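Risk register update: the risk of archive-format incompatibility is retired. Evidence:
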Amino acid sequence: MANVPKLPNQPSEKEIQNFLSKVDEIENVLKGLNSDNEEKRDLYMSKADEMIEKIQKEKKNPVDVNDEEEPDMPRTKTGFSKTSINKDCYKNDTESASIPGPAITECMDQNAFMAAMEADAKERAERRKERETTANTLKEQGNTEFKQGNFQKALELYNQAIDQIRDSSVLYTNRAQARMKLGLYSDALKDCDLALRLWPNCLKAYVHQGHAYLALKDFDKARKSYQQILSVDPKKESMVQEYIADVNRAEEASQMEAKATKLFESGDEVASGVVDVLNRVSQKNQLPLYYSGGFRVLASVIKDADSQTLFRTHNGFQLLREHQLLSRCLSSSLNTLSKEEKDVMSAALEMLTSACKDNETNQQMLLSLPEFVHQISSILVFNFKGQGRVLKIACLNLLHEISLTSAGRAAIVGKFDVDRLTAALFPLMMKATTYGSTAAAVLNNIALDRRLKSLLREKIEEKILPAFESLLVTTTPASIVSLAASAVTNLVGDQVIRNKMASSKKLWDNIGHLLNQDPAFYKPALKCITAVTQSSEEARQMIAQNKGTSILMRFLAMEDEVVIGNAALCLSHLCQVKQVCSKLTKTNIIQKLLELARDGRKSACQTNCAILVGKLVQGDSRHLDRLRELHGIEILHGCMKHIK
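Archived output:
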């Protein structure tokens, strides 16, 4: 049979084999990416990256396999053989020499090719859309399970969603969060890494990554992950600072645990005593008096950070859940407790107060127990008699101790129902009891937390202001009203709350009433007024129109420079209201302010008086004339250069 000439553009055997090997390689990678084995998927993800990189390089530097030299061909200096093609060899061939059959076109019809490509793309897009819909449904189901605390079920649903689509960073961060709740910290880190490979600016991935490293006690990597958040969103600085503070706190706690353990193992008397008493109070079937005595002994021996750490590491907080009598008391209705059981709870609260004193780690661990938080809230609102009042005092003392630290305040606001808590504290403040001032101090402290302000914004008019107004008109001791006013002043830092307070005429009437009563009310009332008038035009108008300037002028003649300074600062705010500066020209205020600026002992008072002089001079030229008459510019220049 005659040799059939090779068709034009027909691929060589080598090209075919090369193509088929690439197909096999791609098929293996795709199978690997769909594997149920996490490690295998990661391996084939790396292979896919390598393959893509290789293809991109080949596109930049294409190599024609036909240009490769045959091994049997002679080599030359140029690397090519001298073989040439005889273009005339088929010159005399006739049509009969051609291969029978239909004509072979060199390329497919362009329109048909494009139509086929479009159909394929449409089909793949539809399949992708179906998978995305399924994945989104599974994700929402997982979110629901997660919120309900069913973390294992949530994890299973997120796994199913990822089986549908593997390029969603949201699914990986959600699964990382579920794995964190289940203690699978290393697996959570893998999910964070995958999310960041899909979207390098995924903020949630950095957050969960930091949490996972923190749980694994890799503190340096945790800090690095949290700091990466700022490269994504510089406005998250306050959040990052809180996370870094958590890392520092955890690192310090870890170091303290190592130190306390070493101390205990060395046979230190105090350390051994703490652990010994803990073991004794854990014994079952003892009388309530035995346990209350043991808890009070613990309260007396827990004196420093080492003993507090040993209390934590030797399951001191687990007594609330596992102790035979104490756990039953915490879960029981308060009206069913006997006198002895109430005493056991009081002693336990005293023990916890010692364990939490200036120790943020212990404070956070204690308030992470939801059943304990619930019972504390119940104690605050329950109407006790006799022994029950001692229990309420112990409860308030514990809350007050925790509220003294920033982490403690954040834990209270984060774990308690703040509506229920504030509703419980105000009635306690109105009673002339031993715990009224403690309740006011707790409210004042937690009002410093920014999250409390955001939680109370919508309810300030409905709950907080009416309760505060009632407090102002009752015969509540001045010390308690002072703390309550300070708490409201702390809340005023929020603009929404400040605006709502400014529009309450009843509130300002009551505060004005305070300024005409006991001098003990002056400081808190003035502080509150000054904070609101600083940025509220409505408050300034209301005070100016209700004889507020004359009341404030009276305070400039007092001896307490804190009161004088606040009165001067508040008057400087009122100077923004028309007619106030002109009205004050009828007084001798410039001379009084110059005397205070010159002779004052507190720099804050001197500064505020000088500021008020400046505001008055700007508001009415007659004040400037009076200032010049008294050589006030020289006086101010002389005294202000000594103020730091």
